[in-house]
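Office hours follow-up: a student asked to see two folded examples consecutively, so here they are.
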Amino acid sequence: MTIAISKDGTHIAYDQRGDGPAVVLVDGAFGSRSFGPNVGTAPLLGPHFTVVHYDRRGRGESGDAPSYAVEREIGDLAAAVEAAGGSAAVFGTSSGGNLALKAAAGGVPITRLALWEPNFIVNDSRPPLPPDYVDRLNDLIGSDRRGDAVEYFMTVAVGMPVEFVAQMREMPIWPAFEEAAHTLAYDGAVIAEHMTGEEPAPERWVEVKMPTLVIDGGTTPWISRGADAVAAVLPNVQRRTIPGQQHDVDPAALAPVLIEFFEED
């Protein structure tokens, strides 16, 4: 484990492996260097690239700040890119893809950008997030109701049935969800403008000029529609579907697609 220093002084923990062009991995909700699909993706990319996988702020061994702002997380990703050599390809999964897009639009030196099922609700493909979604999560965390915050995320943002989430509370994985529950509001702030039901605005992404790959698994219609919509407004984009993959993608199915894209001239 190594430490990078973000623009606001926060310590960002990361692991580095492999050799070759740099690729930085950005996790979605709950994900970290020890939890989530990128844990399996990193070693599959290692034989081809120098892979930097970092803990987003408030997770794992990374630090945090008294207050949250999306700009702070963009600074964290910029610090990881700097640690990777000053510029890098970036892969973001789920809300990590939304964060990576914002970093690219904000001028972080990203050479190539790959996104797995970024969170965009367009048209009436599903209900948008409530306007007070982030406030509600913060209220639950402030009341030390971490399990209820996870349930709120699972039912409102993910769309799981309440009965299914009730069963999940008894699973061994639930404590890991509760441990990272405070960061769900961070993810909520990252995705809020993309989960309104409105089509992405082309002018918002005009600076995302690097080659970009938008990938989905084709099993969730609203995610596929959102992936189509964001791909339609990016200046230099490829669009791929890995058939049959759930949102929690199998790294063995994902890695060959990423390797092919990141090795393109």
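And the second, which I mentioned at the end of office hours:
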Amino acid sequence: MNKHFGFLLLLCICGLPACWNAEEKAAIAKLKPTKDPIQEEIYAFRLKMRALYNNRRFAELEPVAAEIRRTKPLFGNGSWKIAQFYESFACRREEPESMWQLHDRIHQDWIAQFPTSITARVAYADFLREYAWHARGTGFADKVTKEGWQLFGERLDLARNTLVESRRLTDKDPFWWVVALGVALGQQWPKNEYDQLLEQAKAFEPKFWGYDTARASSLLPRWYGEPGDWEAYAKQAAARPDGLGAEIYARIVMSLHGYYDNVFR
């Protein structure tokens, strides 16, 4: 990874530093936008996976996921290919209920055709987790309807059951813990149980940085943390001798900046 990765990611959040003079800013303004070849590669991969999923070509998705789990590839920007694989199937929250129901049927068809597939079950559990939040909405708790809370709980229970069932399968998948950590947060597991799940995840795949961004999110005051906790965790993660250094710090900030008007204040 480029040693300036952290600075570049933070620059995306902040915009141009105030210390840059008018001449420098004018020169930057003249730059022409161009396509990021790495991002284009990711888009192409995701579009291909989504097309296979939409057309229920599960027999073609299965070996792709198996090979990714075996080789653990990263894209040039450091994103894990296995994460991009599962995110290819996402249903946007603004989609109508009919589209969410269609996705539900596709996932159930996948499991029916490949009942021993870890891929199919992780994908379905991830969908159910998002489907739960679709029912709840993103507003404050006192604005959620009774039906919204009921569906939220039911769908998270289904997601958890799907994950539990998949533990009996031979194959294991690093994205399983990403989904499990999301379910645990939604179900408000006791902090010690969440911490145990995180330790299992990091023991399984220590370099998977999605676990660190999930841990940082869980340390927001709305969940398990107090003011300053996630920032302290970001510093701790960046200081690991065998870790990603400034890159993981930047990734954590990027993942949480949407909770603040200005994450640096």
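Two things to take away from it. The CA atoms of residues 126 and 179 lie 6 Å apart. The chain is about 65% helix and 0% strand.
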